[in-house]
Design goal:
The structure holds two protein chains of two kinds.
Chain A lengths: L4 E5 L6 E6 L4 E5 L4 E6 L4 E6 L5 E6 L5 E5 L4 E5 L5 E3 L3 E2 L2 E2 L2 E7 L5 E6 L19 E6 L5 E5 L7 E6 L5 E6 L9 E6 L10 E5 L9 E4 L5 E5 L9 E5 L5 E6 L5 E7 L5 E6 L4 E4 L10
Antiparallel strand pairs in A: 1-26, 2-3, 3-4, 4-5, 6-7, 7-8, 8-9, 10-11, 12-13, 13-14, 14-15, 16-17, 17-18, 18-19, 20-21, 21-22, 22-23, 24-25, 25-26
Chain B lengths: L11 E4 L14 E5 L5 E7 L4 E6 L4 E6 L3 E6 L8 E3 L5 E4 L6 E4 L5 E5 L1 E2 L2 E2 L6 E3 L5 E4 L24 E4 L6 E5 L5 E6 L5 E6 L4 E7 L5 E9 L11 E3 L5 E5 L2 E5 L5 E6 L5 E7 L5 E6 L3 E5 L9
Antiparallel strand pairs in B: 1-24, 2-27, 3-4, 4-5, 5-6, 7-8, 8-9, 9-10, 11-12, 13-14, 14-15, 15-16, 17-18, 18-19, 19-20, 21-22, 22-23, 23-24, 25-26, 26-27
Classes of the chains: A mainly beta, B mainly beta.
Amino acid sequence: MTWEFEKVAGPYQGRTGGLAWDGNAMLFSAVQEERVLRFDPATGKADVFRNYTGRANGLAIAADGSVFGAQEGGRRVIQFLKNGSTAPTRDLLGGKHHNQPTDVIVDSVGRVWFADAYNSTAPYGPPVYPFLDHASVLRLERGGRRNWKLKRMTHDTIGPRAVLLSADEKTLYVADGDVERGDVCQLFAYPVKADGELGPIKVLVSLMFGERGFEGMCLDSEGNIVACAGWKKSGGGPVIHVISPAGTILETHPAPADMPMRCAFGDAGLASLYVTAGDGGLYRARNTGRRGAPL
Amino acid sequence: MMHGSLDNLKAEVDMLAPGAERLVDRNPPLDIIARDIVFGEGPVWDARNKQLYFTDIIGDTIWKWQPTSGLEVVLRPSVKADGLALDLENRIVVAGWGGRTVFRIEHDGSRTKLADRWQGKKLNSPNDIVVKLDGSIWFTDPVGGLYNVGMVGKDMQRYLDNQPVFRISADGKQMTIVADDIVYPNGLCFSPDEKLLYINCSRERLIKVYDVNSDGTLSKGRLFYQYTGPERGVPDGMKCDVEGNVWCTGPGGIFAHDPSGKVLARIKTPGHHPTNFAWGDDDWRSMYITNIGSVVRIRLNIAGVPSR
């Protein structure tokens, strides 16, 4: 089946990024424009959800309806609260400032997992704090008096780009490696143990040097990983893969534009797949034959 | 944390025009005032009590330093306070940066809010502040305190679409925008006769100068100087000396300009990133420089405009 994409919004300046379905509409980041927009399929229009986001990229919706954003420009995960304000989270890991988060997810108990990557665009402000000597998946969780605690989860990543949990939250998928930094890109799976710690790494997919890796991922209703990857500079070009939980690439479809960034299911029944891309567009395919995993 | 080493620290001055030695020696003496400051800012000399106030934005503290007794905390947490000035009654007025307020510290230590909104919306992040001889308070309101690592407060959402320079009238009752044509306003200072106001822009690395009108408005904004060059450092802290020369942090150090804008000298403090400075001591010929990591003092050959 050929997936047919239509451009439903954009182009915006720079790449579009993070996506999150809020139940009625698709939130998406115009990273360089420092805005989060909201595409309403009922009207076909994209309106501003939030301005002045400080280059927020990845988005995730919390149980209370607030939205977490991976703020690349400010080196922190931020929380867009429903009253219109924006709260920071804890950005110190053992007293050191972490890197530039690029993707974020929230699990069913409210823990916030994020990919703390390096980024080619410098953060805001004077360079007081060097970057960490590792780029890892980090996790925020509420401690006493609801203060955020921050913890390092992975010790074997070199530049995580995207994070995803399986439907039962017993597996964490991590897309690792940034081809623009010369990394070799891979897709990892880690068991999430009952105590919340991660078990041993398993390599699901390994790419060749120079191939652009997995930048954004979402889960379909069968537990497969739908992942944006590739670019016009190598291999099979810009694509969307469907990957089984065991790491078998089940399907590969041409992406609607070069540098596909993120993907997420939306619309009624989570029957459409939305994709952001390097050309600043928001794309949608209604005929993928797949549905999103229930949110 | 990245702190510059303070070993063998000395100031070196690039003499860039004839007569520069009237302002500063090539190797002026340098003293270390404070170490272990994460991000020093906001220095102001309190002549009445012979002490220096300054802030550590990331360290979330307003400090006081006296030559005999050393450092003492004035306020912690400080809402990530940034610029400081003294009002006509010698009280500290604070540009609240991450806390998004302008407030005054009374002599008994209590705090009085002077401004936190413009037309119902929260301010951006007040950065630097100056008090005119008529008692009016002027401050810049760029957005850095809503984004910069280690500097934000509880609500970091930007609400204003502009980054203005504000004036609060001496009676505290009126707040007005006096300039709204600077991309990222940061440091500001009056000329010795207060007929000119200089405002710099960190983003475009320039200084603008305006005529100050008797009704508290500004007019005829024009470019005073624009910095170029690859070195680290941007227009940030800025003050005038008694002859009307304009001193401003910039690429690679602190620049001295004559009133026409011509560069006379540049002070380099190696290993550091100067953020701001204040004139001080009895003769106002000392320059207290705040850095990433420290506060230092050098001696000049010319006096600065007294801070009060």
